[in-house]
Write a structure and sequence with these properties.
Arc Repressor Mutant, subunit A, alpha+beta, 3-stranded antiparallel beta sheet, Dna Ligase, domain 1, 3-stranded mixed beta sheet, 5 helices
Length: 140
Amino acid sequence: MTESDTELLRGRGLRVTQGRLAVLGALERMPHADADAVHRALAGAGSDLSVQSVHNVLGDLTAAGVLRRFEPERQAARYERRIDDNHHHAVCSSCGRVEDVDCVVGAAPCLHADAPPGFAVRTAEVTFVGVCADCVEAAA
């Protein structure tokens, strides 16, 4: 629970609650976590937030633009605090590990697509799927 998290929530028009601060703290320590992982981390730290409450907080924070939600293929939705850029993700198809990949070109939306007339592209979501270094090493 930092002063900046309190200011962040207020700046987005959200009430500052212990649950919201706890979820933000958990995601600071565990980027790319899903709701169940956040709940387990909070329960392990003595929080009494239910799984449903964690889902509600994640939904509220995402809707307010405090968190980014992304869905790796065949996995639960993940959440992260890194929201102010248009980065992408690399997902290990073996262990599920997720890592950030900076924008491929350097300027949002990173890709130039033939969008429908009048459609303004703001972001591009790219997911690189492969095998992480740890899994490659373990398989060798």
